[in-house]
Amino acid sequence: MPKLDLKDYKEGQVLFFDKPLNWTSFQLVNKIRWLIKREFKIKKIKVGHAGTLDPLATGLVIICTGKKTKTIQDLMGQTKVYTGEITFGATTASYDLETEINQYFETQHITEQLLHETTSKFTGKIMQQPPIFSALKKEGKRLYEFAREGKSVEIPKREVYIEEFKLTSIQGLGDQQPKATFKVVCSKGTYIRSLAHDFGKSLNSGGHLSALRRTAIGSYTVENALTIEDFEQQLSS
């Protein structure tokens, strides 16, 4: 990446970052904005992201600066690619590891054949309910705010498109909590946490997302993404 000046960032840049674990997408945006402001000694600059990624997920986040923030909606509409891990035999309220296990299930009936056959139920157009622990808004509040207050709220299902859902490995069959790694290619608006939860439910075993990484957005891949440290070094070099 060539050295950029303040005019470049104001005219607009599309930047690709590998978001670290336990960071929210908003924290990443705020960090990038702060680094640019510090480097060029300015009070404000527009910075935004083209699609959130959960704190417990790593991988590709697109960040736009300056005038390029106007292109965010176009960038958000692209196909996403994820890899990750589903743990069966237990569910959590958040559908991932953000919250503790709230229920256990039998897993002795799960076979490799059953797992692979069940993936076919989750390809093409499917109806999906977003998790209560999400940043979606209802009545002016984030859903996770309702969840943390212990309040129930009706969340309508919505149509998403799963182009590919493939299990890449299966471990621990016969154990209390077997696991499967996966690759998913999907449309904008797909919640992989909901996919993991619904997949486990379809197996009559329960399931939750135990790892997630976004590897691509459209033609952009995480292999070409910057770390925060990379970006900070480029700014000051």
Q: What fraction of the residues are assigned to beta strands by DSSP?
A: 25-35%
Number of strands: 13
- Taking pLDDT < 50 over at least 5 consecutive residues as the criterion, the unreliable ranges are none
- What is the makeup of the main sheet? 9 strands, mixed
Description:
It contains 7 helices and 13 strands. With 237 residues, the protein is α+β, with helices and mostly antiparallel strands. A hairpin with an 8-residue loop joins β2 and β3. The termini are close together. The strands form 3 sheets. Strands 1, 2, 3, 4, 7, 10, 11, 12 and 13 form a 9-stranded mixed beta sheet that branches. The radius of gyration is 19 Å and the shape is elongated. It has helices spanning 6-11, 25-40, 72-76, 112-119, 143-148, 192-202, 228-236, and strands at residues 14-19, 47-49, 58-65, 80-88, 90-92, 101-104, 124-128, 137-138, 141-142, 158-171, 179-186, 207-217, 220-221. Helices cover 26% and strands 32% of the residues. α2 runs parallel beside α7 (228-236).
Overview in brief:
By secondary structure, the protein is α+β, with helices and mostly antiparallel strands. The protein has helices spanning 6-11, 25-40, 72-76, 112-119, 143-148, 192-202, 228-236, and strands at residues 14-19, 47-49, 58-65, 80-88, 90-92, 101-104, 124-128, 137-138, 141-142, 158-171, 179-186, 207-217, 220-221. Helix 2 packs parallel to helix 7 (228-236).
Set out the fold topology.
Layout: H1 6-11, E1 14-19, H2 25-40, E2 47-49, E3 58-65, H3 72-76, E4 80-88, E5 90-92, E6 101-104, H4 112-119, E7 124-128, E8 137-138, E9 141-142, H5 143-148, E10 158-171, E11 179-186, H6 192-202, E12 207-217, E13 220-221, H7 228-236
Parallel strand pairs: 3-12
Antiparallel strand pairs: 1-3, 2-3, 4-11, 4-12, 5-6, 7-10, 8-9, 10-11, 12-13
Helix pairs in contact: 2-7
